Amino acid sequence: MIRFEDVSVTYDGAAEPAVRGVDFEVPEGELVLLVGPSGTGKSTILNSVSGLVPHFTGGTLRGRVTVAGRDTRTHKPRELADVVGTVGQDPLSHFVTDTVEDELAYGMESLGLAPDVMRRRVEETLDLLGLADLRDRPIATLSGGQQQRVAIGSVLTPHPRVLVLDEPTSALDPAAAEEVLAVLQRLVHDLGTTVLLAEHRLERVVQYADQVAVLPAPGAALLLGTPAEMMAVSPVYPPVVGLGRLAGWSPLPLSVRDARRRAGDLRERLAGAVREVPSGTRPTPSSSAPSPSTPAPIAEVRALAVRRARVQALRHVDLTVTPGETVALMGRNGAGKSTLLGALVGLVEPSGGTVRVGGLTPHRTRPKDLVRKVGLVPQEPRDLLYADTVAGECAAADRDADAEPGTCRALLSDLLPGVADDTHPRDLSEGQRLTLALAVILTARPPLLLLDEPTRGLDYAAKARLVRLLRSLAAEGHAIVLATHDVELAAELAHRVVLLAEGEVIADGPTTEVVVSSPSFAPQVTKILAPQQWLTVTQVREALG
Ligand SMILES: Nc1ncnc2c1ncn2[C@@H]1O[C@H](COP(=O)(O)OP(=O)(O)OP(=O)(O)O)[C@@H](O)[C@H]1O
Ligand SMILES: Nc1ncnc2c1ncn2[C@@H]1O[C@H](COP(=O)(O)OP(=O)(O)OP(=O)(O)O)[C@@H](O)[C@H]1O
Questions:
Q1: Is the CB of residue 79 less than 8 Å from the CB of residue 71?
Q2: Residue ranges under compositional bias (Low complexity) (predicted)?
Q3: ipTM for the predicted complex
């Protein structure tokens, strides 16, 4: 259905092709998962199926890409729209209408479908993706994950024969991600839809794939095979595969269920091993604090309520954060995580209750004074960056924070060597942009550091670098609060997990306690080795010695 024949793409001005000699086929009615570290060309391959490469991105495409027999070089994206539905990495940039319902209908309208068919499919899709309550909402007022669901819904309604999805679950909560993948699988099985999908969070998707295509390194040849074959050789793999490799299981398990069946021996070996307190996870924040007295909190939230237009986004929220602790805020899309971070940094005004950060009331404090107390790395780091060059961005950060000139640049070079001063922030990769935003925020050395979905778009290596960095900041005494759907990240990093549901705190405790009992928020290793309480492959490796 999709065929690549010896395809190479070279972007204008680039010395090397972004992808080289790509030659593979996605048969009709199969779901093929495209994986690989950042920058290996996954988006480039996806965009050449929809025709965005080279028609919109520029550059040169050699070889041939055909979709349902149509050559994408001679057919513009518009002329492929009746066959291919695409969701890109940045759904916001693709929305064409203002409300949820209109957006779901738009693709069908442009194809001229009958009104009764459109009506039926809109209703179906609203139900399928849990959007019914949001049907009249302006898209601009939706949470990140709600927007991503709308973006996915809007390509499903025209029933395209081919779906091309670039990280479709990056902003979704774990349950929503499962729901979306179940919908895709149903389309593949029942309607024979062909799906090509790229994703970094393999723990969410690998078990749904018929085949996996791996781009091991920039410019390297693409490998194609069954998920089990590919997971044995891929440089990126989910924790279930990491555990399987560690335990020497063959064939490698791809799902928690497969792994549980094999895990008897491993559980026995682990029961014998001394269970140490895992690195990065302390039983309670205060019990291991250096001084006998608990440090004074850096942030205190009492009975916080926030209304956003007609939505009660938060109610009765109490939260205390002390220096040196890392707190993960988790909960379904729209639960109020970003709103709570917004209240801590003064962007969102409480409608009731109080918020105190470093003795100040954030929404009544001048930004200049507040930057020394608290900094937020937003869900879309681009929202924070407005200069034309990396150097300009860093100079502005130094000024805003009254820091020595060169402070921000030194931080950036430390975190991420090799980013040139004259690069436009727009041309950085997702991970590079996140790191730049982090350096900008850290320039003021705020004692409270907030991050909204920091692992969106990051590969496993970039995530590991972020974990190391945040751990060392916590060890220096920074308090860190991160809103995340990445259960594996929370397991690695957080001392404490706070679960929000419909604007209320429903659990607040040490990571192990909160996640072990939750089917949605438990990491893979926990599910595989239950009833023993392990969180990560690293912990298991250390325990086995
Ligand atoms: N429009 C463009 N113009 C110039 N270079 C580009 C463009 N898009 C991508 N590149 C470069 O091509 C290479 C492959 O990028 P691509 O986005 O396809 O990788 P990816 O595997 O999807 O990465 P990620 O997982 O980070 O999204 C990178 O070096 C990137 O900087
Ligand atoms: N400007 C706004 N106007 C009206 N409602 C809003 C606005 N911003 C957010 N909301 C609503 O407030 C609720 C909480 O949103 P918030 O962004 O805090 O959720 P979240 O937990 O961060 O979600 P996600 O996991 O999807 O990022 C959602 O129902 C959202 O639709």
A1: no
A2: 278-296
A3: 0.93
